[in-house]
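Revision sheet: structure tokens.
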Amino acid sequence: MKIGNFDLLCDGVYIIAELSANHGGNIEIAKETIKAAKEIGANAIKLQTYTADTLTLDSDREDFIIKGGTLWDGKTMYELYQNASTPWEWHQALFDYARELDIDIFSSPFDKTAVDFLEQFDPPAYKIASFEITDYELIRYTAAKGRPMLISTGIATIDEIQDVVNICRNEGNTDIVLLKCTSAYPAPLEEANLRMIPSLADTFGVISGFSDHTLGITAPAVATALGARVIEKHFILDKNIGGEDAAFSLDRTAFSEMVHVVRNAEKLLGKVDYSMTEKKKESRRFSRSLYVVKDIKKGETFSEENIRSIRPGYGRHPKYLKETLGKKATKNYVFGEALLK
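Predicted:
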């Protein structure tokens, strides 16, 4: 499965820098963020495409007031989304700029009109946000476009996850990535449950990844070790920009460190390889082998007094010690000589 020219099964971990609201209402900051994402090694920049009106109602009734210990308690949903949205009139310039820099760019559509709008930019993929996973018609409509589908599973039941996978497949779209996600901002480490990453892949027969809202860079490294093929993390140029997502976003320095850690984790994982490389062969000189530890005359018996398994490894394999003991020497041996046969 590919996103753009990146093969998720062969090219490593696909790292997405989530722009979200981290543009401060300034398109130049948005462009600088895209440029920085490219410079520090992200594979993609991701937008969110909605308006407050496509997400909710402009109402101050109790149902529409945010509460529950979030960063945004007391605001109405409309206020939050109005402040956090990326203007649709910016999209052409942002897509063009990202492509000039050769970094992938795509978005999360939040309704059918956003999908229709984004199609003109020929995005390499679509991302379905955690809270939209229950919007089956949105998922069906988006999947039908035939582009890779990245779907966050934050609030979904196992039945809902199966439903959306089936919806995509029924539309002929089998390019599906399920992202483990904890829909809390920031997400506590003890609620990350990263063991679900390999489970998502095994249970639903898809590629799995991680959309991270924890603080710091530990979780992406662990996710990589557990088999995540996609890592998504909110990215902000500088925390001083402020905004709705700044508190749980990584700045340039931290995001760069995260990329470095993920790439090192990939190196550490390596591959399953039992072959004897030249490096391994060279290192075997430090292993044990059979050596003469006391002068032996021809005809004398090999015993634990005159041969032992010691370092270095130029003699016979230690597995031959037992069968060698009790045999007669066919020549003279001197102390420190490797026993070769």
